[in-house]
Amino acid sequence: MTEIGHPVTDLLARLAGEDPEAAREAALELGDRREYGAAPLMLEILGATSDARVRNGIAYALSAMRVPEMFEVVVELLRQERTRGFRGTLLYALRPFDCTPILPLLVDLVIGDSWEAAREAGYLITEIEVVSTDTWLPLEERLRAALEVVEDPGRREIIAFLSEFFENDAEEPA
User: Fold this and answer.
1) What is the DSSP string of 140-153?
2) Which residues contact 140 (CB under 8 A, 6 or more apart)?
3) What's the rounded Cα separation, in Å, for the pair 22 and 18?
């Protein structure tokens, strides 16, 4: 799986190195090559790095590779204050996965995070196929309450769409 001039060992060294841009590029290359053997190191760096560029590059690559262990690492990162303002790509990286278990977190991000994170969280919510009424009703109430106080028109649009989306979905006969 290696090519002349870009051996996997070189990519791994760049991934673990001090240059954030080189690490990001190495992560993306490893993902493009589907170098699954690099996944453990990528997961370790993903959870530990403070550099959003590196974190986003690794998350994107692991998502493309559909590495299941990435889900929990990214969810933990989404819960950390240090990722606030840099969560859009992390959420985008969750697109290949079933996000039903983190539906309450996604609603929180729609209500209170950056516009990009709110948009991606909203998209992930609409991709969830089955939500029990017991789960959805309290979340719908939170969205309606947020709609009363949120002033940003873009965020209001996302919140209103999600409320209507699930209201219409609930009305369809099974």
Assistant:
1) HHHHHHHHHH---H
2) 163, 166, 167
3) 8
User: What is the tens place of the pLDDT at every residue in 41-65?
Assistant: 999 999 999 999 999 999 999 999 9
Query: Which residue matches tokens 């190191």?
Result: 41
Lookup: tokens for 86:
């840099």
Q: Are 83 and 49 in contact (CB under 8 A)?
A: no
pLDDT 10s digits, 139-172: 999 999 999 999 999 999 999 999 888 776 554 4
Res 101 pLDDT > 60: yes
> In the predicted model, is pLDDT for residue 114 greater than 80?
yes
- H or E element that contains 72: helix 70-78
DSSP 87-125: -HHHHHTTTTS--GGGHHHHHHHHHHS-HHHHHHHHHHH
CA angle 139, 87, 124 (to 5 degrees): 45
- Side chain identity at 23, as an amino acid letter? A
